[in-house]
Design brief:
Layout lengths: L3 E5 L9 H7 L10 E7 L5 H9 L18 E5 L5 E6 L8 H17 L2 E7 L9 H18 L13 E8 L7 H18 L11 H4 E7 L7 H17 L18 H16 L6 H36 L7 H20 L4 H47 L5 H23 L9 H47 L5 H26 L4 H26 L2 H17 L15 H18 L19 H6 L4 H5 L2 H5 L4 H31 L1
Parallel strand pairs: 2-4, 2-5, 5-6, 6-7
Antiparallel strand pairs: 1-3, 3-4
Helix pairs in contact: 2-7, 3-4, 3-8, 4-5, 8-9, 9-10, 9-11, 10-11, 11-12, 11-13, 12-13, 13-14, 13-15, 14-15, 16-17, 16-21, 17-21
Bound molecules: guanosine-5'-diphosphate and magnesium ion (MG).
């Protein structure tokens, strides 16, 4: 025996547990592979007894001793070993009672909406009683069949309404009247009922057989002929419900209501709601509504799983990590979701299913699109980072061809980007990475320009260091021997040095893919830096201490040595004063040479290149270079400094003079 459910209770309220009960009966996932059967008939005609016998169900049966009506509302059970739901419907007692009639109509509507087979249970002696309870019921069934299934059939819905099998069970058959006679009588009655049913305008000519199949079986008296009763029920079970190949098989697909099992509970609930509230009920509309409801529900369950599926990649992609498996995860998750949806939803009305599937695809893609956008952004960043890294690594090696390195490297990273972006672009979307690709190309150009600028700067600094070293030497030599062409010598050598540096710069810079225009512009920077270095060296060589020392030695050379370079031994006859004055004047004269960098030969004047904006676009210009004042730099000693130097020098010279004087005096006194 299987569990049972009071699907419509005494208060005519629909059960909350149908869905879970269907689960328990393991029918929820059976798609269309199940059937529903209902039984109708007067009270206490052994309906429940029969159902239990036929299907192993557990419906309440009237207790002989009490004889009270047992079945109230509608009960549901699952048949043993058959995917069949059996509904035991409260019977009427055949009298014209208002409340009964109302429920009879409602239960007929409800049962017919779901059941492919209606068992009509009756005593043999009720056959031919046209006014009997079952006949009223049959009329109701036929009427509601029109309103429920056929209402929409002449609109765009071309599908034929499902047929219903009316299986008459004639109880307590005495075998005096053969089944065929009973069949004729009943068929006649039913045809009469059919004729009396008011039909929709366009269906006045409709035949009963278009909508109903009729079949009839007899059952012997259960108490008087128990063995025959058992045999016959066994035969019915087998021929009508078990053996698919039997010609009497009742559970034919053409009777099926096409409500997927997973939607049955919702469907029945809404049907009952309409019925109970006396609202118009047409099944095609209900089926479409059910399709929408279920497809939405399936889609939302699917989406939940889908979201869980992608959660592991969502975070990392969003925070900027490149997730290599993203494409696969997105495709798999989408495929899985659609398969999951299709698996259940395909049984629902195709237009609804198609539309809901489209919506599902849309919402999947709406979810995936930001991941795509983030990943494309991550790819862009990765491409640029890797390009930079590779460029710097490759440029560290001594022998590189800048233009080749840039070309190869940028091509490689652009290709990688395109490949990986393609990999995550789902088919059938309008997703595009073209804009990012264009940006990437621009960025790669910027990076290589930056890199070239760094390389140019490196080159300039290298050359500048050589210049500093060489200039350091000749500046010292030249300044140590002040002469009228002292600056000519300094600048002469400086210019020669620059010529060499320029040639070298030109050659190396052109290897960096620079245009001549760029080289020319940046050469200015090289020259300015060279000048600054030279000028720093001059400054150093013109420090107070060095100059003072230099002046002193010039003076001493002149004062202590004669014209032939022989050290003087002072004699009283010497005009020390004159020699002193001479040497002093000579030295002070030379001091003037240090005032400013001024060659005698105009051609030796260094032409300091002015800074212009074009350089800034190519390389970074140092602050010093930017604010440097060439004109001021030509000035070496200020007036005050010169005067101060002269004064200090004079003191030194005076001391030497005094010492010389003193040496003469002492030689006389000896
Ligand atoms: P229901 O109200 O139609 O569901 O009838 P029940 O199955 O509850 O049975 C009503 C009464 O009829 C019970 O006392 C049964 O024992 C009795 N009964 C069951 N089957 C038969 C039958 O085939 N013939 C007769 N005469 N009585 C039956
Ligand atoms: Mg009963």
């Amino acid at each position: 025996m299987t569990s049972r459910l009071h699907v419509i209770n005494e208060e005519k309220i629909f059960s909350n547990n149908l869905s879970s009960q269907l689960n328990q009966w393991q029918l929820s996932n059976s798609g269309f592979n199940y059937n529903v059967l209902s039984v109708f008939g007067s009270q206490s005609t052994g309906k429940s007894t029969l159902l239990n016998k036929l299907f192993g169900t557990s419906f309440d049966v009237m207790d002989e001793s009490q004889r009270r009506q047992t079945t109230k509302g509608i009960w549901m059970c699952k048949a043993l070993d058959i995917p069949l739901l059996v509904m035991d419907v409260e019977g009427t007692d055949g009298r014209e009672r208002g409340e009964d009639q109302d429920f009879e109509r409602k239960s007929a509507l409800f049962s017919l909406a779901a059941s492919s087979v209606l068992l009509i249970n009756m005593w043999e002696h009720q056959v031919g009683l046209y006014q009997g309870a079952n006949m009223g019921l049959l009329k109701t069934v036929m009427e509601v069949n029109f309103s429920m299934f056929i209402a929409n059939s002449n609109s765009d819905n071309t599908e034929k309404p499902p047929k219903t099998l009316l299986l008459f069970i004639i109880r307590d058959h005495l075998a005096i009247t053969p089944l065929d006679n009973l069949r004729t009588t009943l068929t006649n009655d039913i045809e009469n009922i059919w004729n009396s049913v008011s039909k929709p305008e366009n269906l006045t000519e409709a035949n009963l057989s278009d909508y109903f199949d009729l079949d009839f079986v007899t059952l012997p008296h259960k108490v008087l002929q128990p063995e025959e009763f058992d045999q016959q029920t066994l035969r019915i079970r087998n021929n009508y419900f078990s053996d698919k190949d039997s010609k009497e098989f009742a559970l034919k697909p053409e009777y099926h209501r096409k409500i997927p099992a997973d939607g049955l509970s919702h469907y029945l609930e809404t049907i009952w709601d309409k019925v109970q509230n006396n609202k118009d009920l047409d099944v095609p509309t209900q089926q479409e509504l059910l399709a929408q409801y279920r497809c939405d529900e399936i889609a939302s369950e699917t989406l939940k799983i889908f979201h869980n599926r992608i959660i592991s990649v969502k975070k990392p992609v969003e925070i900027g990590k490149f997730v290599p498996e993203l494409g696969k995860v997105m495709r798999d998750a989408e495929k899985e979701a659609l398969e999951m949806f299709d698996d259940i939803a395909f049984r629902y009305a195709k237009p609804v299913y198609d539309k809901k599937r489209e919506e599902l695809v849309d919402s999947i893609r709406t979810t995936l699109s930001p991941l795509y956008i983030s990943q494309v952004r991550n790819l862009h960043k990765k491409a640029i980072d890797n390009f930079k890294k590779e460029l710097h690594t490759r440029l560290k090696s001594d022998s590189y061809d800048f233009s080749n390195v840039v070309k190869e490297s940028s091509q490689h990273h652009i290709e990688t980007f395109v490949e990986q972006a393609n990999e995550i672009t789902l088919q059938g979307t309008d997703w595009s990475y073209i804009e990012t690709l264009e940006q990437l190309k621009l960025d790669i150009d910027t990076v290589s320009a930056e890199c070239r600028s760094e390389e140019l700067l490196k080159l300039i600094k290298q050359l500048d260091r050589t210049i500093q070293k060489e200039a350091g030497e000749f500046v010292e030599v030249c300044l140590n021997h002040p002469d009228t062409d002292m600056w000519d010598k300094v600048l002469g050598r400086f210019n020669a040095l620059l010529d060499r540096s320029k040639t070298s710069y030109n050659m190396k810079a052109s290897k960096l893919n620079s245009t001549q225009k760029e080289i020319d512009a940046t050469t200015g920077s090289l020259l300015r830096r060279a000048w600054i270095s030279l000028r720093n060296k001059i400054e150093e060589q013109c420090s107070e201490a060095i100059l003072l020392f230099r002046l002193r030695s010039i003076f001493e050379d002149k004062f202590r040595y004669d014209n032939k370079g022989i050290p003087r031994v002072w004699r009283p006859s010497d005009d020390i004063e004159l020699i002193y004055t001479d040497a002093k004047e000579h030295t002070l004269q030379l001091l003037k040479l240090y005032r400013s960098i001024q060659p005698q030969d105009e051609e030796k004047v260094f032409s300091y290149p002015q800074l212009d904006d074009t350089v800034q676009d190519i390389i970074r210009v140092s602050d010093e270079e930017e604010s440097y004042n060439y004109e001021e730099s030509l000035q070496v000693l200020g007036e005050a400094k010169e005067a101060q130097l002269a004064a200090r020098f004079k003191k030194d010279a005076d001391a030497i003079y005094v010492e010389a004087k003193r040496s003469v005096v002492s030689s006389i006194s000896k």
